[in-house]
Amino acid sequence: MQQTPLSEKEKMLSGKAYQAGDTTLAKERLKAREIVFEFNNLAPKFIKQRKELLRRLFGKTEKMFYVEPPFRCDYGYNIEIGDNFYANFNLVILDCAKVSIGNNVFIAPNVAIYTAGHPIHPHLRNQEFEWAQPITIGDSVWIGGNVVINAGVKIGNNTVIGSGSVVIKDIPDNVLAAGNPCKVIRPITDADKDYYYKQFKLDE
């Protein structure tokens, strides 16, 4: 029995090479851009309205989240965020594959999350072929300013990614990682908690 060929969207979502110029995908990107345009151009006081727009755009949200405009994405429906999520100015998510973000994640300004990739050889790239791999960010992660997270990466729970890092490989739980390419610098331990309690005279 002959199988029905996959659509370009089905190819995209399954990690296969696809052509981004496909009519269906172009319409879906336009729909997302309309919502993003409205989100980015609302007056600052319209917090509730911006939140409702993101609920329409994203594949999954929880009760507590806040995204500072401006924000950009490709499709929106591939983005899933956990509870108590905060993203600062100029977050860009190219969500051609799923982007799963856990609870208590903080994202600093100018962070870029790219699930999309292109062929290195120009012959295929010039035919508009792309591919996409999912990105996963665990719970209680802090992503510093100007970080780039590339396709297929997983970032573990309780991890901090230092400013300016380019993440091209998985980063484990409970570490401070930074650099280009991003590498583990050291574990995060209770000594870090004790330091901040003493430094800022906080009560436990």
Protein model, in words:
It is an enzyme of class 2 (transferase). Its EC number is 2.3.1.-. This is Acetyltransferase. Pfam families: Hexapep (PF00132), Mac (PF12464). The chain is of the alpha/beta class. It has a single domain, classed as UDP N-Acetylglucosamine Acyltransferase, domain 1. The protein has helices at about 10-15, 25-40, 45-55, 120-125, 190-200, and strands at about 20, 65, 70-75, 80, 85, 90-95, 100, 105, 110-115, 115, 130, 135, 140-145, 150, 155, 160, 165, 175-180, 185. It has a 7-stranded mixed β-sheet with strand order 2-5-8-13-16-18-19, with no helix packed on it. It is globular and about 65 Å long. The model has no long low-confidence stretch (mean pLDDT about 95).
